[in-house]
Predict the 3D structure of the following.
Amino acid sequence: MAHAPGLSAAIVDDHPAVRAGVAQWLTTGTPPIRVSASGDDVRVAWTGEGATADVVILDLHLGGPAPALNDLRRLTEAGRRVVVYSMRPADDVALQCLELGALSYLTKAEGAAHLLEAAAAAASGRAFTPPSLAGALAGDRSTGRPSLSARETEVLIEWFQSESKDFVGRRLGISPRTVNTHLEHIRIKYAMSGREAPTKAALLARAIQDGLVRVDDL
């Protein structure tokens, strides 16, 4: 089967059988997603072809009981598109992963169809809500103010002060694609909190309402 250009994944999981199964699902799915890197350490997502993969499929528990939230944070702050694929259906961890910038959170019980859909959506910078994540969001009792990372806030303020994402990228030393990914993460966080902000003006209004930016910053 021919691979669709532009869709590639790095798989990070400490179980070889899981990596093999995920790779099979991705490469034979519709659309097919090429596996450019695979391994039991998150370094595979930072080196070689893994560094340019469109989506990272990340197991949260790599060789230990503590979730790899710091690894997730580093990936998303660098503008990487991440789908968390975990054995543990914990609502609090799922919500934390979304706050850190993951585009989806799936449990390993959810199967090939949901993983493929989540990966394809993430490769295009979109979120995907599988059944387990829908339950977590339904039970979320947060105030509706999303938690943005320091990098996301920095990108947001620069974007409000600029006329283009290219200019933001030059100011911050990152690519326009990374700028766009950060902004997409921010919009997803607002949408998941029930307060969509599809335009720049709407996002500015939300950010001022929530105290994320001040009029003096603009």
Summary: Strands lie at 8-12, 34-39, 55-58, 82-86, 104-107. The mean pLDDT is 83.
